[in-house]
Amino acid sequence: MNEQLETLQRIKNNGIDLLMEFGPKVISATLIMIVGFLVARWIGKVFLRAVRPLKFDTTLQMLLTRIIRVIVLLVFILMALQNLGVQLLPLIAGLGVAGAGIALAMQGVLGNLVAGLTIIFTRPFRVGEYVSMQGVEGRVEAVTLFSTKLSHADRSIVIVPNRKIVGEILHNYGTLRQLSLSVSVVYGTNVAHATEVVQSVLAANAHVLKDPAPAVGIANLKEVAIEIAIKPWTQVADAGAAGPAIYNELLEKFRAAGIQIYTPAMRMISA
Fold first, then answer.
1. Closest by Cα among 228, 235, 219 to 254
2. Are residues 170 and 187 in the same domain?
3. What is the phi-psi region of residue 178: left when phi exceeds 0, alpha when psi lies from -120 to 50, beta otherwise?
4. N or C end of the chain: which has fewer CB within 10 A?
């Protein structure tokens, strides 16, 4: 019984000694980390306000802001560790060896990271532009260090790893799309009048841009019909809705104007 009491007393004394020795250090290290977190956030906000007038790309602004926050936070982490009595040189050396092993195990992740930095600094596309890559296309919603987020016309989201983008063929449509529409009218139609009707339909459509101006004209003289090309410009977000709306309005206007749209004739062949 006495031995148990003595053991408990020793544990108690050791706990008190450890608390007296490391308690203030742990508290001060915790305070250093809290201050570091607040300072990193404040410096990040100040930096972001400072670079906004320079009109950098939004993704680049956020990347630089995060890097600065991480650097400031790392400085405070080192200060907290030093306050706890941790020897920094052996720790840094150990982290270097561990980092080499982690790098080998995370080649895919690091490949995405390097590719993400390449995309952010070379800027082959920006948020809001419409791009086609790796067999998928869509509007660029976000560019992160590891992946690029596209929104598809069917409202789905496509996530493309950055390493799949760099070094591959990429088609950047920008923020505008030119639709490639057409309508065929029978021979004998007053083409100038038909073209005027098409122009009036485009002018009344809210999705069609005035600048750049739409292109309308004869595209092909077929055996049985005259093909009129209709190439209006729209915002990327409006491209999906513009085409059907234009065709619907053209049908109504052509009927009202007595313009006959060519439709292929069907023949029944008896055996």
1. 228
2. no
3. beta
4. C
Q: Which one of 74, 105, 136 terminates a domain?
A: 105
pLDDT tens digits, 63-97: 778 888 888 888 888 888 777 776 666 656 666 65
Task: Round to whole Å and give the CA distance between 207 and 210.
Answer: 10
Amino acid at 32: I
Choose among 32, 39, 37, 35: nearest CA to 84: 32
Q: List, for residues 108-136, the tens digit of each pLDDT value.
A: 667 777 777 888 777 888 888 888 888 88
According to DSSP, the β-strands at 181-186 and 176-178 are: unpaired
Distance, CA of 147 to CA of 159 (rounded, Å): 6
Q: Is 113 within a domain?
A: no
- pTM, two decimals, is 0.54
Is residue 119 packed enough to be buried (19+ CB in 10 Å), middle (13-18) or exposed (0-12)? buried
